[in-house]
From TrEMBL, chains A, B, C:
This is Transcriptional regulator. InterPro entries: CdAMP_rec, N-reg_PII-like_a/b, N-reg_PII/ATP_PRibTrfase_C. SUPFAM superfamilies: GlnB-like. It holds the Pfam family CdAMP_rec. PANTHER family: CYCLIC DI-AMP RECEPTOR A. Gene3D superfamilies: 3.30.70.120.
Length: 107, 107, 107
């Protein structure tokens, strides 16, 4: 048994939670602030059999990996002039720790 | 030294907290949402000597084990008819992870 | 890779967070209640290379170790009389767990 601690962006928290539940993984969400990524993260605790760790990490990657999104350039120059070139911003991102569980009990 | 992570139902959180403190165990409660059980859980972090792990699990079991409660049947049939047979619902429940602690410091 | 879980007094949380970030450590803060110390704690999750564990513990010690502060004696005796002798109260304090990380992934 392993415990997966995953810190993900709040924006990806709901969809990741649904995906993990749908695949049969039990999760607990901790409200967190600041940290590994920008402010506004959620920490997931996921108890998982040793041979399912990679499957869990794949799901976390699919739904909360850091990716870029193209946005209109928000830069504004003097006298209201601005460029029309789009810029890429980074969204999402996850930090995952896998820890060994010596004893696991459901009561 | 071990770290016991216990996810318990909010309804059992206060009484479990008192019981652990009374038995001399130091606990930290994390507010959690959703997860291993129904929505509304509390995660306890309990630092404990190796030979006290079972004593902690016994206390968690005593105060937050899943159990059934008999309730009037809430089912309502057509035209306001309903059965009077009582039903059993499940309350409580806990998921416990025990993790090895390599270093423990009180500052 | 190690995961450092540090439960510190809320009063020391902001300055500790800044110090860890300034030294290049990534942290996640969990809101916590009650526990190892008096009510009002914050739990930090800090992912760190094996050879940096002591440096992290040194920073936690520097900013959130339990220390005494001299205060005017708040005791009040009968008829409004009170002593002028200052008393020492304890503030801060931290409980630190270091746990081995089997797998660490940034996504
Ligand atoms: Ni295992
Ligand atoms: Ni040990
Ligand atoms: Ni390691």
């Amino acid at each position: 048994m392993k415990l997966v601690l995953a810190v993900v962006n709040n924006d990806d928290s709901a969809i990741l939670s649904s995906a993990l539940t749908k695949e049969g993984f039990s999760t607990t969400k901790l409200a967190t602030t600041g940290g590994f990524l920008r402010a506004g993260n959620t920490t997931f605790l996921i108890g998982v059999e040793d041979d399912k760790v990679d499957a869990v990490i794949d799901i976390i990657s699919k739904y909360s990996r850091q990716r870029t999104q193209t946005m209109p350039d928000p830069s504004v120059y003097g006298m209201g002039m601005y460029t029309n070139y789009p810029v890429e911003i980074k969204i999402g991102g996850a930090t995952v720790f896998v820890v060994d569980v010596e004893k696991f009990v459901k009561l």
